[in-house]
Write a structure and sequence with these properties.
single chain, alpha/beta, Multidrug-efflux Transporter Regulator, Chain: A, Domain 2, five-stranded parallel beta sheet, three-stranded antiparallel beta sheet, elongated
């Protein structure tokens, strides 16, 4: 997560109105500073403190050290890229179907990457497994494949996969899709305490 966020970015992340955020900054409830162009920037740590102080639930993707990612596949160049791109995540990796089931049952993963080219765990099995443990709403599943064709994408979407990346994963495409995921993540807006 960036050290400073714009009111627009925070509004997207938390499903607040940008107008409400501007109002809070003008009243001094939420500390901010202004860029030379007059845009408001809010420090990440101030945002976390503000949410805690006002007893608003802290989304797991904003809490450092709480984000978890599961990579299902071999250690290869794509795995190394994902490790590089996802420095804020605690990364687990497995190739074993048994260990995969155990980890999904035990841990709360925000992202699960499945290498479609490995043959030990099928994406249908993974989709059923995530659904069986009731983690479809809190887990975003992404696929990685050498070849992407329409039938594969349609089948993956039916099993609740968000998207399929083509190998090798480019940093630009990865960051764009992951940012979009977290901007869409919040559905229910939080309310500021009435006492303010």
């Amino acid at each position: 997560m960036k050290e400073f966020l714009s009111t627009f970015e925070i509004a997207k992340l938390l499903n607040f109105s940008p107008y409400t955020l501007r109002l809070w900054t003008e009243r001094g409830i939420l500390p901010c500073y202004r860029t030379p162009g007059g845009h408001r920037r809010i420090k990440y740590s101030d945002l976390i403190e503000f949410l805690k102080k006002n007893r608003m639930p802290l989304p797991s993707f904003l809490e450092k050290g709480k984000r978890k990612l599961l990579y299902i596949g071999k250690v290869n160049s794509d795995y190394q890229r994902i490790k590089k791109f996802c420095k804020d995540f605690q990364i687990h990796r497995t190739e074993s179907p048994l260990e995969c089931g155990y980890l999904i049952a035990k841990e709360k993963f925000e992202l699960i990457f499945l290498d479609f080219d490995q043959k030990r765990i099928d994406f249908k099995e993974l989709g059923k497994l995530v659904k069986a443990y009731g983690k479809v709403d809190e887990t975003i599943m992404l696929g990685i494949s050498r070849e992407i064709y329409p039938e594969l994408v349609i089948r993956a979407e039916k099993l609740n996969f968000y998207d399929v990346f083509v190998k090798p994963i480019s940093e630009e495409e990865f960051k764009k899709k992951i940012l979009n995921l977290f901007f869409k993540k919040r559905e229910k807006p939080y309310r500021l305490r009435r006492s303010l």
